[in-house]
């Protein structure tokens, strides 16, 4: 397998567990698989800054390097967060969170897959979200060969999913979300929402457009904006972030204060609140 060096923050396990993607997973000890569009990659750490990759160097440089956002300096972002917290009562907490989450990157994901996945994600556990998404992929997606010569299915194309009725979608354990997914499909297919055009929208217009889809509120819209359109100022406020604002920041929304990189700060806080605090208790 080819080797690549990644000098900046990069931790495969933390990226998989960071809540921003639902098809990535550890397929064997230390080997992590990511699937997006018709691409599959297995990665394994081979040294301090070196990783084995299952694709060729050309595909890595043209596709996966962008997907993993290797053009962004997360070491510098962590420094900015630390500087932001200096001389503030919550500064030590920020330092703990960014150190614990060091290695997380904001993936540049496909807008259609991200839209459908985060509509499905509402009020579901992560295992249930993964199961529902895989069922949809297995039913409607095109086959892709994996590095170990098995087969997975790609996330379905818009045209393939748009043929499915809301009733048929309900068979995938989506519950009330079936109607939301169906509405999203009709809007995307009918081009009342042109997902590719949204790259050129400003943050407010992007969020407003996404929220015209049934079931897409502030949190889901912010997830799509951050994880598909790379809008670092957008902050998904879920139960973990609400809890952190109340318990760790005295009710103060520090994300509003942090500004243009607040979405990355949110990712560190989310990860630390969900996993790091449990370790401290244990």
Termini gap = 38 Å
Could you give the count of β-strands?
7
Mean pLDDT over the residues:
94
Extract low-pLDDT stretches: none
Concise overview:
With 282 residues, this protein is of the alpha+beta class. It has 14 helices and seven strands.
Which helices and strands, and how do they pair?
Blueprint (H helix, E strand, L loop, with lengths): L2 E3 L6 H5 L8 E4 L2 E6 L2 E7 L4 E4 L3 H11 L6 H12 L5 H10 L10 H10 L5 H15 L2 E3 L5 E3 L4 H4 L4 H4 L7 H13 L13 H8 L7 H10 L11 H10 L5 H5 L3 H20 L1
Antiparallel strand pairs: 1-5, 2-3, 3-4, 4-5, 6-7
Helix pairs in contact: 3-4, 4-14, 5-9, 5-11, 10-11
Descriptive account of the structure:
- Among the domains are: 65 residues, no CATH class; 117 residues, Hypothetical protein, domain 2 (Endonuclease III, domain 1, Orthogonal Bundle), CATH 1.10.340.30.
- Helices cover 49% and strands 11% of the residues.
- It is built from 14 helices and 7 strands.
- The strands form 2 sheets. The protein has a 5-stranded antiparallel beta sheet. Strands 6-7 form a two-stranded antiparallel sheet.
- A hairpin with a 2-residue loop joins strand 3 and strand 4.
List keywords for this structure.
11% strand; alpha+beta; five-stranded antiparallel beta sheet; 282 residues; single chain; Endonuclease III, domain 1; two-stranded antiparallel ribbon
